[in-house]
Each structure stands twice: as C-alpha cells, then as structure tokens.
Amino acid sequence: MASTRLNYQTCGWSSPTATTLPPRTCLGVARVNGAAVSSKKKKRGFELRAVAETAMEAVELKKDIAEFYDESSGLWEDLWGDHMHHGFYDPKAADVSVSDHRAAQTRMIDEVLRFAGISEKCPIGKGKTVVDVGCGIGGSSRYLASKYGATCKGITLSPVQAQRANALAAAQGLANKASFQVGDALAQPFPDGQFDLVWSMESGEHMPDKAKFVDELVRVAAPGATIILVTWCHRDLGASEQSLQPDEKKLLDKICNAFYLPAWCSTADYLKLLESYSLEDIKAEDWSPYVAPFWPAVIRSALTFKGFFSLLRTGTKTIRGALAMPLMIQGFKKDLIKYSIITCRKPE
Predict the structure, then answer these.
(1) What percent of the chain is helix, strand and coil (3-state, nearest 5)?
(2) Are 202 and 176 in contact, with CB atoms under 8 Å apart?
(3) Residues 31, 327, 25, CA angle at the centre, nearest 5°?
(4) Helix axes 294-302, 98-115, angle to 10 degrees
(5) Contact status, residue 270 vs residue 327, Cβ threshold 8 Å
(6) pTM of the complete model
(7) Which residue, 13, 1, 30, is CA-closest to 208?
(8) Which of 13, 148, 229, 346 is the most exposed place for a label (fewest CB within 10 A)?
(9) E strands of 33-92, at which residues?
(10) Do 42 and 230 touch, CB atoms closer than 8 A?
(11) How many angstroms separate the CA atoms of 82 and 211, rounded?
C-alpha cells in the first residue's frame, strides 16, 4: 500500500516511501537532524524539525493512554453514559441539559453516518461487519449493532474499557453482535479486508504515527467499505505558513501533556494521506460549531458534588485531564482546534 511521511515542520510530504510520522513533540526526547535532543535542553513543546520517535516513547505513550482510560472511564460512564465522544448540537441552542447532552452524543453517531451516506434509507445492513477503532466502552458499536444489526468488533488499549464494553454488550443482549478486546490501532489484530465499515470516533488524536494509523484503517477495510474518521485536528496552515504560531503550539502542548496526545496534524494532512491510497469519495468537514456546547457541559458536570468527589477518587491522570478541559474551549474559540469528520470509500 502507498504510504507517506508527514513532516511537521512543513506539513508537507517528505518522502513517498517513508512510513513514520514525526515524534510526539509534547513528551520525551525528540531527534533533530539525527541527534537526540533532551527535552530539558529544548523547551518542552513542539520541535518542528523532529523526524523520528523512539520505540521506548511509543511504548510509554501506549501505557499512559491505557492507564488514563483505565482511571477515567468509570467516572465518565457514571456521569455521561455509554458514549465517550462529543455530542452534535444545534449551534443556536442554549441551556442544554444533561439528558440533552446524552442525546447529542447519540445524534453525533447518526449525523456521522448520514455524512458518510449511511442511514435508515441506506443502512449498513444485517450481516455487515464493523470495526470500532478506539472503542472506549463500546457505545458506538452497541448502537450500530442494535440499530442496524451489524456485527461489531472493537479495540482499545485499555483493559478496563474492553472488559466493561463486553459486560455492557452482554447485559444488553448484544454479546453475539458486539465484542471488544485490547488491541493496538497501529497494528490491528484483524486480517486484511475484513470490515464493511471502519469506524474511528475520536481516537486518531492519540496516534503517534498518523500514516500507520491510516494504513491500518485502509488495510482492514473490505473492498467497497466505508471508512469514517472523526478526530481532533489543528487548523490547516495558510499558503505562506510553515508551521503554527508559537502561542498555538504552546496551547496544544499543554493539551498534549494532559490528555496523552502525540503531535497534532491538520485535516489537510489526513486528506493527503488518504489520497495516496486512491480511495474514492473522500470528503471532510469542520464540525466545530456543532460541538461547541460539549466542553462547557463536561466542566459543569465535573463541578457538581457528585462529579467533584468522584473525580478526586479516580487518580492523577484523570485529574490532570480535567484541569486541562478549559484549554480545549480556548483552542476551539481561537479556531486552532478543529473537530473534523473525514469519510471515504475503498474501491471495489
């Protein structure tokens, strides 16, 4: 399969045969021009010339992500329910209640499917297979299995999430339709061409190697399959820009360190990756206006009596993530963070 390397310095493609994305620039050691540069010598943050990530850093990142979700998933489910992603709102709506937020999360799934051309009129279809890449506690998979009769398999780095997702599927009578396991999105435990729908809802931002991530999404997709990628991106660069502005990098760096994210990329970067595979019907939109009420609502829920004391019982990783939530609001307001939906189809 075709693959490319995103050079974060230029947001261009440095080689048609390379497969490695730039390193996590928020944590650890970066390599610059072949030499290791300590993050103590370089200001922690985005080292735009970095071109390689050590295996040790990748292992550390996976461990941190797994622990973050092991700690936080129970709290999230208790406060917000099955779905661990943004909701889809009317941009003009005000004073949205908690029940409205939960409905908005389900609405997000339906709107994503609609954008990809899947609906009650044009459904996934019974007997069709779905992979849920970064499945959380399995909310999307169970919804797709229940509504469309699809057979779903989900993967997550978190053993706690996988166990809880399977328990919920069994409790809802969906154990034969939705199953979950610990798995790496960069090395999916599935054969080539297995799934009719490849679904990734807000997991791409955790991937240290965006090229490998996309390669795996394409690899497991069956001929004619739909690929759906919903993810956090930074804004596209202007024609005269070589990189984001220093204050923008600083803000993203803080978010990276709180949520265990590697280097961000833009929607345009993802589109270039997908175009390198000759995929069909590639399209993307910025849905940032439709998710605007989400983070303020999450903060309000954390500040309730139940939310606050539940948060204190989780662990340091979850608390650090909670303290960084206002930074996400700031990023959206600055038009720096984009909530991107990207869909395409693998040729028959």
Answers:
(1) 40, 20, 40
(2) no
(3) 5
(4) 150
(5) no
(6) 0.83
(7) 30
(8) 13
(9) 35-37
(10) no
(11) 29
Query: How far is Cα 137 from Cα 121, in angstroms, rounded to an integer?
Result: 28
Query: Of residues 152 and 21, which shows the higher confidence score?
Result: 152
* Nearest alpha carbon to residue 82 among 186, 180, 176, 148: 180
Both tokens assigned to 93: 């709506």
Classify 155 as helix, strand or coil. Answer: strand
User: Beta 337-345 vs 30-32: how paired, if at all?
Assistant: unpaired
Say how far apart CA 312 and CA 310 lie, in whole Å.
5
Adjacent-strand bridge partners of 130: 152, 197
Joined together, the tokens standing for residue 12 give 């261009």
Tell me what pLDDT residue 311 has.
Answer: 76
Position 314 scores a pLDDT of 81
Average pLDDT over the chain, rounded to an integer = 83
Report yes or no: 77 and 137 within 8 Å, Cβ to Cβ.
yes
CA distance 273 to 40: 33
The predicted structure's pLDDT at residue 98: 58
pLDDT at 330 over 70: yes
163, two tokens: 């166990």
Q: 186-228: per-residue pLDDT in tens?
A: 999 999 999 999 999 999 999 999 999 999 999 999 999 999 9
The answer for residues whose C-beta is within 8 angstroms of residue 32's C-beta and 6 or more apart is: 47, 49, 50, 51
**Structure token digits, residue 66:** 């797994």
Spatial distance between the Cα atoms of 267 and 338, rounded to a whole number of angstroms:
8
138: left (phi over 0), alpha (psi -120 to 50) or beta: left
Rounded Cα–Cα distance for residues 111 and 24 (Å): 32
State the residue for tokens 């699809």: 150
Pairing of strands 280-286, 337-345: antiparallel
d(CA 168, CA 299) in angstroms, rounded, equals: 26
